[in-house]
């Protein structure tokens, strides 16, 4: 079973959606709410500790019915089965896509090439648990006999963004270990970090699926050299661990076999935080919490796998996003978490969404004739309100926005929480209704603004409204609810990739720059600038002159 290969524009639903769009383009959501008092009930889903309100969108039940029909016509149901069953749906790399197996139950059976992979997932989980416990309780010590105080995750892309996002989102649940992330090849990044570290009490986790990524290996070697200026060679086995599919390369780097945590080629980098790539998560918040994160994701997997499309949160969110992207021709989507803990969430989503679905060739090797992934961006509320919300409210671009909020504050400061949540709710209300001329006039009159000034100010103060939002309201930020939230977006990405008829699990687009950087480095070292275009050659010469 492979993924269906249906051009979405060839479906009946697509054509009907194009016609339907003409009647919806100018629709006012305010009127839709007036016409249907039950709209907020009809267009929302409650599942476990999640409340997802998608009523503040430019759509009707008819729109949704057509979008569900689209999902049916492109055979989304078959695709979901193939995704969970271990079929090689990453066809361009001939790999299965099984991040869902990393959070499966021990009794589940998931086969790749005839082998049930669940037992080996659990074997590694056991290793993660034992290792985590021995570091957290201090029984495993550094080369001078001191317990560890600091953990450094050395990785980039999926080997950095997921773990870094979860560790920062879970700060409330953190133990005494300080966790650091080093990713950029910029030497200033690693040197700033090394200034803060004591080699006697620091554990380095080198995370690289391939163990051949330039940034990660360069940082790992620099750190190793720094470490060896103080410690001896034997100490490496106590202070360096690796997470990789490439055991041989990790051994060649000097990592002890016992300290190598395997991952598998059916785990995509940007979906790998659930595997041993999440070792720094487990170290930071303890294995029990790491396991809760996994079980939250597993619950979302079951929801996604079993609920009919109408009640399926990732399916509904994916279809709404397609409605704007492909029919309203929106270019970007904002994701605004109303939690400072989630300040790395958008950066994480940028990789998972844009590296997955930023493609222009379909599953039949043809260029697509429609838009695929848009730009994903955002910053936590309320900070974003004081930065770029001006553009969302009054700019010329239509930006569908996801608002993510948690009802219960972790630090139980009710005064802050009430203010935070009133902003969270008020913004979607403001985006929906805007502010009419009449309301602005009334306000200016109340302020006794002179008449001629009033007329001049009026257009600037009007808010057009009718800006679409989804509200994802969750009881509380816990390892389990975060697991659900991340898995929700993972499945949204999957659904969109299926509908756009693209391969979501390769990333050939990142290769060219890497290759050319290799060539340029060689030219730099050889001091020869031949066979380059005039601009590139001049840039190199400029660099050469200054260094
Ligand atoms: O884990 P690694 O093999 O070091 O790869 C790290 C990252 O680099 C690649 O260029 C890809 O764009 C990412 O998907 C990947 O997560």
CATH class of the largest domain: Alpha Beta
Per the CATH scheme, the topology name of the largest domain is Rossmann fold
Can you list the ligands bound to this structure?
A: 6-O-phosphono-alpha-D-glucopyranose
* Strand neighbour order, sheet with most strands: 1-2-13-12-10-11
GO molecular function: carbohydrate derivative binding; glucose-6-phosphate isomerase activity; monosaccharide binding
Subcellular location: Cytoplasm
Catalytic activity: alpha-D-glucose 6-phosphate = beta-D-fructose 6-phosphate
GO biological process, one term: gluconeogenesis
Write a compact overview of the structure shown.
This protein is an alpha/beta fold and 547 residues long. The protein is built from 22 helices and 13 strands.
Question: Helices, strands, pairings?
Answer:
Layout: H1 12-24, H2 29-35, H3 39-42, E1 44-47, E2 50-53, H4 61-73, H5 76-84, E3 111-112, E4 115-116, H6 118-136, E5 150-154, H7 161-169, E6 178-182, H8 187-194, E7 202-207, H9 214-228, H10 236-239, E8 240-244, H11 247-253, E9 260-262, H12 279-285, H13 287-306, H14 313-328, E10 332-338, H15 345-357, E11 375-377, H16 389-394, E12 401-408, H17 414-433, H18 437-446, H19 451-461, E13 469-476, H20 479-500, H21 511-526, H22 534-546
Parallel strand pairs: 5-6, 5-7, 7-8, 8-9, 10-11, 10-12, 12-13
Antiparallel strand pairs: 1-2, 2-13, 3-4
Helix pairs in contact: 1-4, 4-14, 6-12, 7-12, 7-15, 12-13, 13-20, 14-20, 15-20, 18-19
Bound molecules: 6-O-phosphono-alpha-D-glucopyranose (G6P).
Residues 156-159, 208-210, 213, 216, 269-270, 355, 507, 510 line the site of 6-O-phosphono-alpha-D-glucopyranose.
Keywords: Cytoplasm, Gluconeogenesis, Glycolysis, Isomerase
GO molecular function: carbohydrate derivative binding; glucose-6-phosphate isomerase activity; monosaccharide binding
Function: Catalyzes the reversible isomerization of glucose-6-phosphate to fructose-6-phosphate.
């Amino acid at each position: 079973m492979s993924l269906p290969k249906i051009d979405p524009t060839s479906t009946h639903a697509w054509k009907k959606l194009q016609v339907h769009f003409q009647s919806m383009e100018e629709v006012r959501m305010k009127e839709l709410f007036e016409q249907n008092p039950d709209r907020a009930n009809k267009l929302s889903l409650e599942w476990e500790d999640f409340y997802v309100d998608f009523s503040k969108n430019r759509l009707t039940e008819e729109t949704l019915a057509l979008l569900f029909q689209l999902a049916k016509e492109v055979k989304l149901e078959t695709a979901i089965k193939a995704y969970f069953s271990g079929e090689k749906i990453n066809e361009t790399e001939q790999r299965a896509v099984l991040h869902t197996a990393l959070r499966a139950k021990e009794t589940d059976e998931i086969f790749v090439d005839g082998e049930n992979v669940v037992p080996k997932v659990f074997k590694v989980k056991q290793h993660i648990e034992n290792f985590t416990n021995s570091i957290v309780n201090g029984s495993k010590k550094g080369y001078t006999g001191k317990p560890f105080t600091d953990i450094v995750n050395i990785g980039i892309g999926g080997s950095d963004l997921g773990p870094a996002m979860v560790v920062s989102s879970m700060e409330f649940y953190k133990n005494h270990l300080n966790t650091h992330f080093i990713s950029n090849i910029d030497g200033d990044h690693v040197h700033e970090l090394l200034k803060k570290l004591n080699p006697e009490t620091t554990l380095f986790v080198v995370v690289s699926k391939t163990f051949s990524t330039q940034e990660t290996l360069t940082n790992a070697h620099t750190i190793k050299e720094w470490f060896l200026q103080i410690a001896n060679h034997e100490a490496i086995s106590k202070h360096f661990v690796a997470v990789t599919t490439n055991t041989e390369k990790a051994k060649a780097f000097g990592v002890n076999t016992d300290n190598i945590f395997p991952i598998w080629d059916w785990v995509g980098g940007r979906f790998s935080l659930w595997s041993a790539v999440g070792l720094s998560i487990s170290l930071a918040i303890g294995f029990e919490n790491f396991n809760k994160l996994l079980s939250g994701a597993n619950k979302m997997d079951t929801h996604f796998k079993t609920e009919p499309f109408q009640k399926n949160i990732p399916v509904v969110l994916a279809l709404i996003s397609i409605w704007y992207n492909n029919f309203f021709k929106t270019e970007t989507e904002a994701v605004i978490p109303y939690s400072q803990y989630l300040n790395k969430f958008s950066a994480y989503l940028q990789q998972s969404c844009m590296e997955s679905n930023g493609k222009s060739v379909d599953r039949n090797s043809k260029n697509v004739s429609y838009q695929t992934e848009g730009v994903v961006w955002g910053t936590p509320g309320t900070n974003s309100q004081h930065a770029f919300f001006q553009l969302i409210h009054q700019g010329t671009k239509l930006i569908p926005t996801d608002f993510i909020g948690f009802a219960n504050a972790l630090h139980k400061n009710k005064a802050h929480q009430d203010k935070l949540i009133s902003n969270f709710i008020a913004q979607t209300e403001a985006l929906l209704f805007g502010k009419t001329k009449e309301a602005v006039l009334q306000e200016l009159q109340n302020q006794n603004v002179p008449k001629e000034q009033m007329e001049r100010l009026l257009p600037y103060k009007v808010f057009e409204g009718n800006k679409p939002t989804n509200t994802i309201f969750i009881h509380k930020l816990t390892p389990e609810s975060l697991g659900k939230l991340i898995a929700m977006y993972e499945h949204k990405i999957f659904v969109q990739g299926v509908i756009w008829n693209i391969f979501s699990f390769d990333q050939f687009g990142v290769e060219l720059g890497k290759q050319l950087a290799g060539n340029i480095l060689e030219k730099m070292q050889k001091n020869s600038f031949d066979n380059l275009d005039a601009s590139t050659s001049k840039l190199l010469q400029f660099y050469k002159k200054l260094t």
